[in-house]
Amino acid sequence: MEIRPTTDQDLDVFVDTLHAAFGRFPETPTEGGGVWWSALEMDRGLLALTADGRPVGTAGAYAFELTLPGEILVPAAGVTAVGVLPSHRRQGVLSAMMRHQLTELRAEGEFLSVLLASEALIYRRFGYGPATYTQRLTVPRHQAALALPRARGRADTPATGSDTGTIELLRRAECGEILEEVYDRYRRAQPGALSRPHRWWALGAGQPPVASAPRYVAIHRDADGVPDGYASYSTGEPSTLTVDETIAADDAVFTALARFVLGHDLVTQVVFKHFPPEHPLRWQFADFRAGQVSGDTDWLWVRLLDVPRALTARGWFMDGDSSSSTSTTRSWASTAATC
């Protein structure tokens, strides 16, 4: 078996082999939209070939930035498109590709790699471990009322985190540049967030709202009119409003966007597909039991390729004494990944 790097000329073979590995057929690009593989970086891909030159496995990587505590941005390889034909599984193809990829990444000076794991058991074998988590939150509309915030201090003093912004409703096709800008500002301040290269947005290569699939987008603007958050959503049967993604500069903006989608008419429930487990929204419902959590699962997995560089790259949010038991820092869950 041979494992070789790919070039742009290998794109069709790479895509066909990957889809065959998962028993699927490549979808046809829609008008004005792209397909996720249109943004593949073919100079970072691998093909596994049999002795007679037949492709049987694929692996790829994106060049990302990952945000660490302290708003530190570091390069990270985003592993993607890993697959082996059913006819060649359990024959060492995957192990050979992953070892080859890790060796190449180290040789290129990378010290972190990340991925979304289709199966949890597979990637632990290659040193990856879960670093961030996500949930699905379902809220019946008849229980969706949020409690009124309690007054704090003097009556003429606004409560901490109060929202003074506005929300504008747009279609996805009308606000691509706004979404890209808002997400980029958000991810630079959010530990564990990945960059989304401009070409993804330009090509519509990804899941909504990066993809240009029909969506409504609630854009939140601050008191000066600057966009600082959005919620991308669609409605469907059975009378469900599904939120693809909510990005917000702070909890007050998130709450404002949540209040907007929860107040939508003619739906019986609102589903947040990716809801941060630590977010306080569930405690803001008038009925605490309104939010029904499901799909509590891992999201981003991390592999430390150079442990000292990875750990020392982190920043800190304040000066502190390491001997103090009350020092305040934010932990980076990625350090729990297996090395």
TrEMBL record:
Record EC number: 2.3.1.-
Q: Would you kindly state one Gene Ontology biological process term found in this protein's UniProt entry?
A: aminoglycoside antibiotic catabolic process
Checking Gene3D superfamilies in the record gives: 3.40.630.30
Q: Where is this region: Disordered?
A: 320-339
Ranges of biased composition (kind: Low complexity): 322-339
The N-acetyltransferase domain covers which part of the protein? 1-153
Xref: SUPFAM superfamilies? Acyl-CoA N-acyltransferases (Nat)
One of this protein's Pfam families, by short name?
A: Acetyltransf_9
What superkingdom does the record give?
Answer: Bacteria
Instruction: Please provide the record's keywords in A-Z order.
Output: Acyltransferase, Transferase
For this chain, one GO molecular function annotation is:
aminoglycoside N-acetyltransferase activity
Q: What is this protein called?
A: UPF0256 family protein
Q: What is the lineage of its organism?
A: Bacteria, Bacillati, Actinomycetota, Actinomycetes, Kitasatosporales
